[in-house]
Amino acid sequence: MDPAVIAAVVTTPTAVLAAAAAYAAGRAQARAAQRGPVDAVRRQHQRDAYAAFLVAASTYASKTHEGNRVDQARAEIPDTGDPQRYRDQVRQRVRELLAEAAGSLSPIPQALALVQLEGPAHVAELAERVELWAHMVDSYAGADTTSSTYSVQREREAHRKLKSWIEAYVKAARDHLNTGEG
């Protein structure tokens, strides 16, 4: 067989494969160029939704945290020199601050709705857990602290769980935004 014909027969399949690969790579590059701006906008919407939820949940957790309430009560109430009266006044103000925090959950469900829309599902599920524990803390915030069914320990445990779910949410949201995983 003629060497020119052999060369043509051998190189033709290679050229066809190279052309097909170049065509596929070009289409993938075009899709990525088109999707890139859309993905960037979507990621920014997710970031905004995640941040709004985090601010709402963290603000609520801070308002209902026992230590923060005690610090605020001590700052507001002047020490008159009577230790028992001062402790009673601080204790009463701490209860009042908790009652004031009761019902201030509304920013959390509003922000949760955005997280649920933006997804992904595992981040939204963690945000739902945060909301659940915020409701648990809120049930103590609205409770009669003088009632025999009220438990400081259960209030503290609910608040501890709220904080741990916020931490888990932050980690998953950060991982998703930074790596697309988590």
Structure notes:
- With 182 residues, the protein is an all-alpha fold.
- Helix content is 84%, strand content 0%.
- The chain is built from six helices and no strands.
- It has helices spanning 3-64, 66-76, 83-101, 107-118, 121-141, 152-179.
- Helix 1 (3-64) packs parallel to helix 5 (121-141) and helix 4 (107-118) runs antiparallel to helix 5 (121-141).
- It is rod-shaped, with a radius of gyration of 29 Å.
- The model has no long low-confidence stretch (mean pLDDT 81).
List the helices and strands and how they pair.
Blueprint lengths: L2 H62 L1 H11 L6 H19 L5 H12 L2 H21 L10 H28 L3
Key terms:
182 residues; mainly alpha; rod-shaped
Compact description:
The chain is built from six helices and no strands. The protein is an all-alpha fold.
User: Per the principal axes of the C-alpha atoms, what is the gross shape?
Assistant: rod-shaped
Biggest sheet character: none
Strand content: under 5%
Low-confidence stretches: none
Radius of gyration: 29 Å
